[in-house]
Amino acid sequence: HCERTSSPPVHPSGNYFRDGQTKIGNVEGAQEESRSERRKAQLAQWRDKFIQNLQSAGLLMEKEESSSVKKAIHYLKLHAPWDVLVYYAEELCLRAPLQAQPQPDFNTSAQVLQKLWVPNIMKDSVPNRPVDYYTCAFRKSKMEKFLGSDDRENYFTNTQRHRIVYEILARTVYGRRKRAEVGVARLLNEGAFTGAFPLHEGPFELPGCDMQPDKLNKRQVLYHYWSNWLKWYKYQPLDHIREYFGEKIALYFAWLGFYTAWLLPAALVGTCVFVSGILTMGSNTPAKEICESGGLYLMCPLCENCKPWNISDICPMVGYLFDHPGTVFFSVFMSLWAVTFLEYWKRKNATLAHHWDCMDFHEEEEPPRPEFSAMAPAMEENPVTGVKEPYFPEKARISRMLTGSMVIVIMVRPTGVVRVLLSEAVTIKLQINLIYLVSPNKTLPETFFPTEMHRTQTQYEDAFTFKVFIFQFVNFYSSPFYVAFFKGRFVGYPGHYGTLFGMRNEDCGSGGCLIELAEQLCIIMVGKQLINNVQEFVIPKIKAWRQKRALSSVKKAQKAEQPKCWEQDYELIPCEGLFDEYLEIVLQFGFITIFVAAFPLAPLFALLNNWVEVRLDAYKFVCEYRRPVAERAQHIGVWFIILEALSHVSVIVNAFLIAFTSDFLPRLLYQYKFNNDLHGYVNFTLAYSPPSYNYSSHTVCRYKAFRDENGKYTLVYWELLAVRLGFIIAFEHVVFFVLRVIDWMVPDIPESLELKIKRERYLAKQALADNQEALLVNEAIPGNKK
């Protein structure tokens, strides 16, 4: 209990006003600190006007205070009465239940195992599963048609109440509307309030062992059956997640779980390819020749201050693990895997969107953003709904969008140049890869996007996500691209080395550029992911400790009292959204598809990381974050478009990687023209240093190139170039053709779902149709016509 009173009784969850009957829709906290008097007066004026306008909007509120000698924290508990809920439910197009229906099972693996009569250890009996309904848009005039409409206390779910209250908070003006002084989000940024959040539904700690599972609150159910590390192999309770956190967060976890499950076949095939390289390593003739050559091949120095070296000093057996015919097969497999995964995710997403009543949310139901409404200079009719809405001229929006885009372009160019220069200058490979362990701050680009005036929150987030991802793409992928396609390409030859800013261009190491790329990917997929998981585990705990320490003086002053639920939730850290979570996994998807030819074990390490990632994120949302406002969403947004783009880029990159960075095609050409067993291949790939260089250095050395003694390209070089270009064209055309076939064969919406949608539309028409037949009969009676 949050408060102990004799009359009236307090509701067990504690999320009620003092009367024990009025539900709290939201809580706001204001903290008085030392500021300039003028600033404090401005914030107080904004707060007072904001609270006054909230009362005018129909919200009920109650104030609480926690204070000490040094600090006072004021809480404002908000509640939306029935009339306000009904009004905004219709305006926000909330879904209303028409008829209960059986709970479907969306797990394909569960359906397959059930048909095969195989026990499913991944299935878990989670209590209190939400009921599934046929639904339609809420209408006040049709209230009697909806199930449970006579129970005002429980008709609207807690997440619907939170959404309505937060919508009012987002729309309420506190200053001048033309300055966009609207909404609680800006007041939080200004410092007028220190928090605005819905309350968790009780503690997450489990009660005694004798507690019945169906008696647990929703948060305890999620803690025990979802965020528990012992449940790592169980299905996620997606319906419970959606009921507690909303569709947007539930879709993220559904996508993350779906992607993790699809990583399993990719990891198995990649491991088999790697193992096949180990088993056939002993039959690698070029590697044997190098290891047994002794001092036969004296290689030219790799840098200005380096000395000549013997090729036998390196035994390239390890390089064969990442550069053998199996990697070509795996590149094709991963390209097909990526597109097939995305096609089946579209089916899964459509099924979940319909199941959660948000299939037409973005097109028909999503309201304009409060900032857009406040700044829009005109009103125009929505072509879909026919309702007049705020409108921003297209020309003005395009100019604002171009301004934001140019900022990203300006930031991306120096980022790529700096990363390439770092790779040029730093010689220790570990230091080169440390650039991946630091994630750049996204606050700088975020400041430019609110001026673009996107109509809906989804459009704003998609534009923001796409532009920041372009920045992050260059930031994370520039060094692998440099190593794969630029490093060692502009070196020149002995006596005529290429230079940049007076320094000799960097050459690949003795093992080749593909080995360096594999080392980078190994550090990224193992080291970076491990550090990220440690950070995700430690940083929230440090933030929570700092938050509790900042409030320790207030807690000491009231140590005799039991802390109230809103005080406990205020000690938690604010939820920062899903951007960082999506970004981490999407970047991982890029690494395991774009550069998979260099590191076949990447899907395996991604799978291990994601098993941990699911439980880490679940624990953060249930135990360490303040409860976020439940948001609706139809799909994962622009992230899906980014994933599709990465899957297509991966086909092109892997084709060039095999053609120009791998030794697969040179070996194939040598087998075809000279020797099928690859005897003499090492000598075939090495050129002699020019006589002018030999005279100055007094040493004849070899270097890897197809040049004659004068440094001119040989006929073999041009033949190999033609083979490489032909391979790229053939690889891309074959793979893209198969991808289009897969896209055509797998429909975006399952046939069973299409039938279900038609059934629901029929029921909605029957439930909400006016009694047209009665009107026609009434008009047909003589004397009733005017």
Give unreliable regions as ranges.
1-10, 413-448, 771-780, 782-786
Helix content: 40-55%
Radius of gyration: 32 Å
Number of extended strands: 16
Q: Strands across the major sheet, in which order?
A: 2-3-1-6
Global morphology: elongated
Q: What integer is the average pLDDT?
A: 79
Strand content: 5-15%
Multimeric state: single chain
Q: How is the biggest beta sheet arranged?
A: 4 strands, antiparallel
Please state the structural category. alpha+beta
N-end to C-end Cα span:
65 Å
- Helix count equals 29
Write the SSE topology.
Blueprint lengths: L25 E6 L5 H20 L3 E8 L4 E8 L2 H10 L3 E7 L6 H8 L16 E6 L20 H14 L12 H7 L4 E3 L20 H8 L12 H8 L1 H33 L5 H7 L6 E2 L9 E2 L6 H6 L2 H31 L5 H5 L4 H6 L2 E4 L6 E4 L2 H32 L3 H5 L9 H4 L10 H29 L6 E2 L2 E2 L1 E2 L2 E2 L8 H38 L1 H6 L7 H6 L8 H16 L7 H23 L13 H24 L2 H10 L7 H5 E3 L2 H7 L4 E3 L10 H31 L5 H18 L3 H9 L6
Antiparallel strand pairs: 1-3, 1-6, 2-3, 4-5, 7-8, 9-10, 11-12, 13-14, 15-16
Helix pairs in contact: 7-8, 8-11, 8-22, 11-23, 11-27, 14-17, 17-21, 17-23, 18-22, 21-22, 21-23, 23-27
